[in-house]
Design a protein that fits this description.
- The protein folds into 2 domains: about 190 residues, Rossmann fold; about 80 residues, Formyl transferase, C-terminal domain (Methionyl-tRNA Fmet Formyltransferase, Chain A, domain 2, Roll).
- It has about 300 residues and is α/β, with parallel strands linked by helices.
- Helix 1 packs across helix 6.
- Helices cover about 25% and strands about 25% of the residues.
Amino acid sequence: MKRTLFIGCVESSYVLLEAMLEKGYVVDGIITMEESKINADFKSLEPLAKEYNIPCICTKNVNDEETVGFAKKINPEVIYCFGWSRLIGKELLALPKYGVVGFHPAALPCNKGRHPLIWALVLGLKKTASTFFIMDEGADTGDIISQREVFIDEKDDAQDLYDKVLEVAKEQVITFTKEFAEDRVRPVKQDPNAGNAWRKRGRMDGQIDWRMSPRAIYNLVRGLTRPYVGAHFMAGEQEVKVWKCEYELTDEYSNLEPGKVLKVNSQTDFVIKAYDGIVHILDSDAVSLKEGDYL
């Protein structure tokens, strides 16, 4: 096996590193973080480093002198960088002979950029992909070394899709780690003119507008549910997070305005009129509503 440095600080980093170690692959060094305020699924790799007695450094800046110095001491032939939301600098990119392998859960060259699992669900896509590539100075633009489709079921939410992608990704990592050891990795260049790049999402991207179609609201809720921040709607000045819902397209309430409260079962379970149907909120923050209210 090639000398390997592993960089990561989220749940997917932990799962993929653990899969390698359980299969008996040797990792020569780990770069991780002690905490992160920008990753909803943050998970330090320190416990695995201690369990497997692997040299490890926690950093706030992967490109600072101390961290790069640590990487140079490891002298990696390949770096795996999975689940690191900060740019990798030129010095680290140029360090390993076989490059820095990145991970993007989308079908590159399509859907580069931010929040790929969330966007896939919010947009109602039927499939996505798990893609590993050799990182360059662009965003998700490097040569692809492994890509597999992942199908999205209508009932999948963020956690379901997260789990599906990671199951596929674990198999891919084990396969191309073996291929690296045997010098059988064959990177495939991306067409620089192909595909698109998803933008960063903001708070208002997660706000439910009851004039939206019921299916669009359903997709927004399932895309932003745990482990992410949750979709929300406003009830007066209160921001109400929604974690689960179902919908129905129906003409029964076609003469009623979007946003009207049709039924209240509890403070976390109620039915709202949307554009061309109804949305049944099954789990939310507690909110005091009564039938006939407008949101």
